[in-house]
Amino acid sequence: QRALDVASTFPKGMVYLGEGAENMAKLLEDVSGGKLKMKVHGAGDLVPALEVFNAVSSGAVPAGWDWIGYWGGTVPVTGLMGAMPFGPDPEVFLGWMWEGGGLEILQKAYDKYNVQVFPCHLTAPEAGGWFNKEINKPEDFQGLKMRISGLGGKVINKLGASSQLIAGGEIYVALERGRIEATEFSLPIIDKSLGFQNVTKYYYFPGWHQPSSWNSLLINQDVWKKYSELEQKQFWAACKANVVWSMAVAPGAQGKVLDEFRAKGVKVQRFPEPVLAALRKASAEVLQEEAKNDPIFKEALDSLNAYMKVAGNWMELQSLQTK
Amino acid sequence: MGEYFLPILMVVALIGGIFTGYPVAFLLAGLGVVFCFLADIPVLFLGTVVSRIFTGTLANWLLLAVPLFVFMGLMLEKSGAAKKLLMSLERLFAGMRGGLAISVAVLGIVMAASTGIIGASVVLLGVLSLPVMLKQKYDKGLASGIICASGTLGILIPPSIMLVLVGDILQISVGDLFMGAMIPGLVLGALYIGYILGVAFLAPHKAPAGVVDVNDKRPLWLALASDLLAPVILIMGVLGSIIAGIATPTEAAAIGAAGTLILAAFSGELTYANVRDSVMETGKTTGMILFVAIGATCFSVIFKRVGGDVMIEDVVTTFASGPYGTLAVVMILIFILGFFLEWIEISYIVLPLFAPIIAGLDFGLDLTRDQQLTWFAILVAINLQTSFLTPPFGYALFYLKGIAPPGLTMGDIYRSIIPFVILQLIGLSLAISFPGLVLWLPKLVTG
Amino acid sequence: MSSMTMLERIGHALMHVSAWPGRVSSWLVLPIILAVLVAVTGTMMRLGDLFGWGFAIPLLGSHLSITGLAELQWHLFAVMVMLGASFALAEDRHVRVDFIYAKFQGRGKAVVDIIGDLVLLLPFCAIVAWLSLNFVGLAYRSGEQSDYGGLTDRYLVKAILPIGLALLFTAGLGRIIRNVGFLLSGRQAAEPGPNGASHG
Ligand code: NA
Ligand code: NA
């Protein structure tokens, strides 16, 4: 059996995000006794990163590995599934996806495109972004030129910011030269490799636009149907095991990198509460607008909000932190 | 050896096909399709080519700079500003052999600092200076060689798309790469100028001294100052808008293009005929340049699918021994691949395979892992810059051919580039022997 | 022109027709420059949305933002590239490594081009154009649009792929017919093309 070609949206060696697919490949081989193999191709190797969904859907490549939120332009609900602004933390998002009806809604949206989806990688909260000016109050977003993707961009525009579309390769120069004043990218360990710490003054948290985010394995349904029932179960088992891996390895590495940034003179700090409150309000508005435009988005948003409320009943009682 | 049959056959077919004279863009594209059938790959897989064309070329905002710089170059020529400047430079260098070629090299370095698009630099330099150099009886080879070589500096000297991509693939700081490429880029520029001076000294007929333009009655200083004014304002506008944070390098190209329209208006050359000619030429040149990229993307995705990437990996692991031996094999391999493949493809094929190998080597230089990879990345970058110059498949050469007068054949251009490729290899050897050339500036800036 | 055979005339006509859209689209370089200048100025003035009109129209949606303007730039660029290819073919501007080719006689050049166009160019155009129909269809069915609040109706710009390739196919077919006509004519040298470009 030829190894399943998997086109990733991340560079092959990319810390954590790229490794996720490699780890999944290893787990799949383990649980199938070496029978099922995945050959992971880095971003751009077979198709450009942002073409992975189209390519899997059309059958040009049999499988892909992605951040779910990349497909917001094609399948609106993925904007929510990839990461919900002010949405659930990883624990609650995990519960909703696997046991609370999330996966079923996502699969329903993907059925139209002949794609089978496996949410196999849950990423810890990302950073709030790199800023070249201090953010003290919501008004500081007025006119701010920030590179930010997806729903997050629509949210900051509500605060009067000018969200910018800058090609990945030009972010560094644009930031260094002041063409943009802020950018978000990913986790600290990943941001480090892009060198933003050399050209920015402030590194803000929390990553309100991505409190937790899903990466997934995509398989063309024609390809998926050819696997035996046992093999299909092996895929699911490896996928779930990979989720555990993704949650287990992320937190430890970040703190060390933050110390390196501080040593370089970057101010690592939190957004002030009034700023978060304004962003929270704008996020709710954006989510409602998106829900109005797409019924599946609405279904997912209602379901996730309901789940967060129920789970919140329990989580708050058990919380050891006082807010 | 049997498993390498198809990738080897593909390379052989490419080389053979190139020499028949059939258009390179269609040869690359067609061979991809033909080998998809020969290798019995499902035809649906060619859907990857559709995606790659769309996102990699059509929706690639960075490539937008190509038509903009082409148009800028053409209008600059029509405006007469460039010609006047070159004529004044001729007067300045009137007594000096090779003076004009040196000003082309200097202009190339300035262009390199303002853009990362090779096609644009080569086209602009070519349109500006090739006719003048030929008129001055420069050796065809020296003229086209210096244009191609200086034009390719743009992808090494920051800002550079290539360094951004390499940094992304290797997961090292792009900022460090930008700093690291600065000195090697300038060293290469100095090598070109040194070579011109050498030729001018040893073979004066190849790099003649300029002839003073008797029609111009202005004093030299006044002529230079007034002729320099317009282009300097233009270059400052392009560079300045990037440095001041007003525009990205791509956007700056449009500012430059608009600037040349204004220049043309001032010199009374903003006529319908001039604009139409520039527009038509821009349209054809854009289709031509970007279709080479489109063909290359089709060729290389199939090349990898039939095992070309595995073949390359095996070659290195078979021949490598010791840290410098391994480095040498990787460098030679990239150099050879550079004959046929495009830098983006080489980056994606080779770098992920070899980065971990290189990172694990001990060169006895007392470098951190990141420093060692930064050094390696710059060596790769110099090597990839060279790939634009190496026949048979060198973008810079094609660009120049695209705008050259009919008398200049592809064969002339191929021959012209040999000394400059040797200079590139000297530059590469220097960067290997003295890692400080690469690492000194990043250390200074980021500590 | 008078000595051209019927086949050559048909070939020339096909090449000429498929080059025409590229001639027109060459002018897009001017609106691209304008779009960049407006976007840069808007960004300097810290604008996000430029203006809105409250109802949806194709491609632009209901408002024009700085992001939309940035996307419009590469949309126009995509059109220039795909249509420019057949324009360049008709004028024989695609790069050839010509130091052997230049030594061929007119008939030898024609044979190289006929074989190349038949085996390489036409299959590429046909297959990739065919596969791109699905690509465009998917964008149409899903209502794909910018994920950055920019332009809508992404299928419109994607459609330039099959359109451009179909034109290039036509241009290639025209060149084959012209070259076959030339070989059959028994002459030694080809007539200059419709746009003044002779063969090779
Ligand atoms: Na540059
Ligand atoms: Na080359």
TrEMBL record, chain B:
TRAP C4-dicarboxylate transport system permease DctM subunit domain location: 11-437
InterPro entries, alphabetized: DctM, TRAP_DctM
Transmembrane segments: 6-28, 35-54, 60-77, 98-130, 142-165, 177-201, 221-246, 253-273, 285-303, 315-340, 346-363, 375-397, 417-441
Pfam families, per database record: DctM
GO MF, one annotated term: transmembrane transporter activity
The entry's keywords: Cell inner membrane, Cell membrane, Membrane, Transmembrane, Transmembrane helix, Transport
Superkingdom: Bacteria
Membrane topology summary: Multi-pass membrane protein
Localization per record: Cell inner membrane
Any one GO CC term of the record: plasma membrane
Assembly information from the UniProt record: The complex comprises the extracytoplasmic solute receptor protein and the two transmembrane proteins.
Role description: Part of the tripartite ATP-independent periplasmic (TRAP) transport system.
Similarity section: Belongs to the TRAP transporter large permease family.
PANTHER family documented for this protein: SIALIC ACID TRAP TRANSPORTER PERMEASE PROTEIN SIAT-RELATED, SLL1103 PROTEIN
Name of this chain's protein: TRAP transporter large permease protein
UniProtKB/TrEMBL annotation, chain C:
Keyword Cell membrane: yes
This protein's UniProt keywords: Cell inner membrane, Cell membrane, Membrane, Transmembrane, Transmembrane helix, Transport
Cellular compartments annotated: Cell inner membrane
Entry GO terms, CC: plasma membrane
Occurrences of domain Tripartite ATP-independent periplasmic transporters DctQ component (ranges): 65-179
Signal peptide: none
Domain of life: Bacteria
Membrane topology: Multi-pass membrane protein
MF terms (GO), sorted A to Z: transmembrane transporter activity
Record-annotated membrane-spanning stretches: 20-40, 72-90, 111-135, 155-177
Main location: membrane
Homology family: Belongs to the TRAP transporter small permease family.
Function, as annotated: Part of the tripartite ATP-independent periplasmic (TRAP) transport system.
Record note on quaternary structure: The complex comprises the extracytoplasmic solute receptor protein and the two transmembrane proteins.
Stated name of the protein: TRAP transporter small permease protein
